[in-house]
Amino acid sequence: MSNKHRVGFLGPFGTFTEQALLTQADLAVGELIPFRSVPDVLDAVESGAVDLGFVPIENSIEGTVNFTQDALAFDYELLIQREVVLDIEHCLLAAPGTTLADVKVVLSIPVATAQCHQYLRTHLPDAEIHPASSTAEAARTIAAQPTPGVAAIAPRNAAALYGLNVVAADIADHGANQTRFVLVGKGHIPPPSGHDRTALVVYQRADQPGSLISILQEFAARRINLSNLLSRPTKRGGLGDYCFIVYADGHVADELLADVLRSLHSKQGAVKFLGSYPAAGEHAHSAREHADTRWREADDWVESLRVQISPS
């Protein structure tokens, strides 16, 4: 990637999003542009104001970041280019000289305060919780307008960036806290890496018994593993009008996965492709690779039969 690429991310500087972004050497050398919200990032990518966008989409404790997932599924025609997983450490930050006993107000993004709910109940039961647009924005607000007794839940690196002290470190309720981020862009599918993931939105042809099974069977029959399956309201109808967001192991260039897409497209109400991209983490189990081999063998067998067809 050229260093001329402009990469928008959920800002300001000092967020976990920026921290994850900087782990990607090719992205870190680009022009990094912070935005106040995820929709602002996605708007900038769609309009061409930036070349790529980098946003959070899933947390190991809170689950899917619905406003990101829904925006990609329903509101934008953008494709996921890659994913990045970051270990999260929430810290309580405040102006120098502030102690835990001084804290009366805590600022942060609602997802972060939810992940530190037990700590806040135990150590700051009387503190008021005020929302911020991001963890780093909470830290920046305190630094810009120091107020006695106000603290922020934010990344450790935001303390150094905004001149704050770490009042308490690693305050999340659960130790294994990770967030998945995605890089999105327009009209480009990365080539297969051998360890890929494909995201789809599948709309049912009709709300009837067995409709979800009919979708899942397309993957199961081909031994394709699903890493995530979400049911989301379509926002087109009333209660009960749902679609399914599917994350499957494999790449659209793989014949087996391509066969699933063909089948879903022909049988279901609609299918929206959200991208095929390199997956983070260790390589998945070999079940799909074995299925690929068997599918190719079956395809060769069918072709060997077809060549025996007599000309008319």
TrEMBL record:
User: Which PROSITE patterns does the annotation name?
Assistant: ACT, PREPHENATE_DEHYDR_1, PREPHENATE_DEHYDR_3
> Carries keyword 4Fe-4S?
no
Reactions that this protein is recorded to catalyse: prephenate + H(+) = 3-phenylpyruvate + CO2 + H2O
Keywords carried by this UniProt record: Amino-acid biosynthesis, Aromatic amino acid biosynthesis, Lyase, Phenylalanine biosynthesis
Q: Does the keyword Cytoplasm apply?
A: no
Q: Name one GO cellular component term.
A: cytoplasm
Q: Pfam families per the record?
A: ACT (PF01842), PDT (PF00800)
Prephenate dehydratase domain segment(s): 6-186
InterPro entries membership: ACT-like_dom_sf, ACT_dom, Chor_mutase/pphenate_deHydtase, Preph_deHydtase, Preph_deHydtase_CS
Recorded metabolic or biological pathway in which this protein acts: Amino-acid biosynthesis; L-phenylalanine biosynthesis; phenylpyruvate from prephenate: step 1/1
Q: Which residues form the ACT domain?
A: 200-278
| E.C. number(s) listed in UniProt | 4.2.1.51
- Any one GO BP annotation for this protein: L-phenylalanine biosynthetic process
Report the GO molecular function annotations.
prephenate dehydratase activity
| Name listed for the protein in its UniProt record | prephenate dehydratase
Query: The organism's lineage?
Result: unclassified sequences, metagenomes, ecological metagenomes
